[in-house]
Structure formats: structure tokens, C-alpha cells
Design brief:
Blueprint (H helix, E strand, L loop, with lengths): L1 H13 L1 H33 L15 H34 L1 H6 L5 H35 L4 E5 L1 E5 L1 H33 L2 H20 L5 H5 L2 H4 L13 H28 L4
Antiparallel strand pairs: 1-2
């Protein structure tokens, strides 16, 4: 199993598209930062125009913490899309090139082979989210510095600087759980569809539907508390004045359960499939 993991990591690092994906993520970060640098004050003035008539604001609200919060809102759609394409390719490429058949001719257990794929997908996702978090904090704080965070979630919430930094770190951690869910789903789709183009289209459709359903409001407990589209937006809960810690933990555990379920489905289908 250890040898399989080493081989899978080597294959992933050898692919040029892995680095293109990482560069794309970093490029999105830079675009958001540049947009905030040139237009951020206009956005804040529009957001706080009514409040400025009644309150006096000291210091700048356009700071690194706000930029990181904006990045989180942008990245939690673009990041899973890039990761899903990359991670699905770890299997679809082997289906296309015929290398999978060659591997299966070796004394390699099918379930260990596909499990190693899932393990590497999860590991790479964690590393990517960590890299994204570190680069976001570094760029945002270097250019804009630290400061209090203002977010709009039904009402305007003002969060003190050190507390804002802590909440942003928690948001990245929960976002990492969501990213792992999406990349595991993409690998399972690769097991089912085998072809790269089909897998990418279905993975993108899955992500889009997830974001659409997340916006829907229904008077249904299962839909609101147990259906995975609603769970993936739980990182926003950290920025309420009263943080619902119990709900966040519950949503995280349920999302992990969905991840394990999709992984088990993918492993079962791969083991039963005739690779030929």
C-alpha cells in the first residue's frame, strides 16, 4: 500500500497540469487582490453609505481580513472546479492511455489501488487548501495590513481584528472538508464514466447544481440540515455574531460521512468493474 501511495504521488507531481492548476488558483487570488486594491473603497462606500450618516468609522475597513473573506467567497466555487478536474484526471488519464490495464496485470489488489488514489486525492486537496490559505493571508496582509472585519449576512456584522483572523482560519479548515468532498466525488465520477471529457462535464454540473441548490430555501429539515449542498456553505456560520458551534460540528461530520459514502461507492464500483 505504501508503494502504491508513493507511485501515485509521483505520477501526480510529474503531470504538468498539476502545476497549471496551482498557478490558476494563485492567479485568481491575485485578480481578487488587484480588484480590491483599485475598487475596494468604492465597494465599501456603497455598502456603508447609509451607516456613515449615523456612525463614525475610524481606521480603514478595507484591510487584509476583508480581502481574505472576499477570497473565500470567490475560491469556494473556483477552487473545487479546478481540483475536481485535476483529481478526476488521475484516473481518466490511465483509462485513456491503457496504463490501468497494465497495472492490473501486476500482482496489485484492485481495492488497494483505488484506495491509494483516494488517499492521494485527499492529501493533495489538503495541501492545496493549506497553500491557498497561507498565500491568501500573506498577500492580503502584506498589501492591506490587518484590521476589523465587516461582513453582511442579513445584517452587518463587525468583527475585531484578532477574532476575524481566527474565524478566517476556521473557515479555511471547514472549506478544506468541503474541497475533499468535491474531489472525492470527482474521482468517483471518473470511476463511473472513465472518459475525461464526460467526467469533467458531469463534475462541473455537479458543482453548479450544488451551488444552485445551496441558494434554495425550503421548509424541510432534511434539505436544510442533512443535504450536502446546504452543508458546504457552513463556513459562513463562523462570521455570525452568535456562532452556532454545534451546528457547524454537525454539518462537518455529516459532510465527512457523505465523503466516505462516495468513496465507498467508487471503490465498490472499481473493484467489481472488469478492467479491460
Amino acid at each position: 500500500m505504501r508503494d502504491l501511495l508513493v507511485v501515485e504521488i509521483y505520477k501526480l507531481l510529474k503531470q504538468s497540469k498539476t502545476y497549471y492548476g496551482l498557478f490558476a488558483i494563485f492567479f485568481i487570488e491575485l485578480l481578487v487582490v488587484l480588484a480590491a486594491y483599485y475598487q475596494g473603497n468604492d465597494i465599501l462606500d456603497l455598502l456603508l453609505s447609509n451607516l456613515k450618516d449615523s456612525f463614525y468609522f475610524e481606521g480603514t475597513l478595507l484591510n487584509g481580513n476583508l480581502i481574505i473573506y472576499l477570497l473565500l467567497n470567490m475560491l469556494w466555487f473556483h477552487l473545487p472546479l479546478i481540483l475536481m478536474i485535476l483529481m478526476a484526471g488521475t484516473l481518466t488519464t490511465e483509462f485513456k492511455d491503457g496504463t490501468l490495464q497494465s497495472v492490473m496485470l501486476q500482482p496489485v489488489s484492485k481495492w488497494k489501488f483505488i484506495l491509494s488514489k483516494y488517499c492521494v486525492v485527499i492529501l493533495f486537496t489538503i495541501i492545496t487548501v493549506t497553500f491557498t490559505a497561507l498565500s491568501s493571508f500573506a498577500i492580503a496582509y502584506f498589501i492591506f495590513g490587518k484590521g476589523d472585519l465587516v461582513v453582511y449576512l442579513g445584517t452587518l456584522n463587525f468583527i475585531e481584528s484578532s477574532m476575524a483572523q481566527q474565524k478566517l482560519i476556521y473557515a479555511f479548515v471547514f472549506g478544506g472538508i468541503s474541497m475533499i468532498f468535491f474531489t472525492v466525488v470527482s474521482l468517483t465520477l471518473a470511476v463511473i464514466l472513465k472518459e475525461a471529457t464526460k467526467t469533467w462535464i458531469v463534475a462541473a454540473l455537479f458543482l453548479i447544481l450544488n451551488n444552485v441548490l445551496m441558494k434554495f430555501e425550503l421548509d424541510n429539515n432534511f434539505y436544510n440540515y442533512w443535504f450536502f449542498p446546504k452543508l458546504n456553505n457552513s463556513w459562513q456560520l463562523f462570521f455570525y455574531t452568535e456562532v452556532p458551534s454545534g451546528l457547524i460540528v454537525q454539518n462537518g461530520l455529516v459532510l465527512i460521512a457523505y465523503t466516505v459514502l462516495f468513496m465507498c461507492i467508487g471503490m465498490l464500483l472499481f473493484v467489481k468493474r472488469d478492467i479491460g
